[in-house]
Specification:
Layout: H1 2-5, E1 12-20, E2 27-36, E3 39-47, E4 50-53, E5 55-60, E6 63-68, E7 73-80, E8 83-92, E9 95-105
Antiparallel strand pairs: 1-2, 1-9, 2-3, 3-4, 3-5, 5-6, 6-7, 7-8, 8-9
Length: 107
């Protein structure tokens, strides 16, 4: 759509928090994103030293989706202004585990 063609580019470093549903406190989150049209590549992880390649990354109409670790963890996120928030899910041992992600663009 025309609107998504002019949507803000999400290329850059994004830092914030990642909290698994069962965790008592937030952990760190770091996304390093490169956007080319609707395609998004880069890395995601807790720190500079522990990052995973983004696979199947796509941004469209304010929604960012991607997987990491061979598709075992799926992210469905909302992009708004200088923030990206949403949920990560993964299947492990037959159960679905969820986590919340909240990151802001580094200035």
């Amino acid at each position: 759509t025309l609107a998504s063609a002019f949507a803000e580019d999400i290329t850059g470093r994004w830092t914030g928090t990642f909290r698994p549903a069962q965790a008592a406190e937030d952990g760190p989150a770091l996304l390093i994103l490169k956007q080319d049209g609707e395609k998004v590549t880069g890395t995601a992880g807790p720190t500079e030293n522990e990052r995973f390649d983004i696979e199947d990354g796509k941004v469209l109409d304010g929604k960012l989706t991607f997987t990491v670790r061979g598709g075992t963890m799926k992210f469905v996120l909302n992009v708004k202004d200088d923030g990206i928030t949403g949920e990560a899910t993964r299947e492990q041992d037959g159960e679905t585990q969820k986590a919340k992600l909240d990151v802001k663009r580094e200035k």
